[in-house]
Amino acid sequence: MITQITLNDGKTVKVKPKISVHALREFQSKGLLPKSLLQAFVGADKEPDKMEPYLINAAWLAYVNGNPGTTMTQEQFEDKLDLNFELFGKILVDMIGDVAESDNKLASSFKRSTKKGSRKDKRKRHQN
To answer: What is the pTM of this model?
Structure first.
């Protein structure tokens, strides 16, 4: 499980991806996580653009969860965070943990959606 991340200013910060059910509901009500995590993950490989904001939010949510008294805003945090979908995906999988591991389809769909470049992209490059 990821317990810390390094920001682009060199500072390492604590993160806590595991969230409570209450925190999940709160993040969902604010639109920071999808209303149905399972449905979102199962369809992630077909519509990755729908998951992208939630992937990026996962790092922020894990940071806030690990640093409840933080004064850093989401905008400040994201300014110090390099774009890294692989990291965000790992954090989000840690967040939903046992659910992703127990549902093979869910885990494989999510894994495919967070890989760098899709097969279609590679085929298109070779055809040009």
So the answer is: 0.69
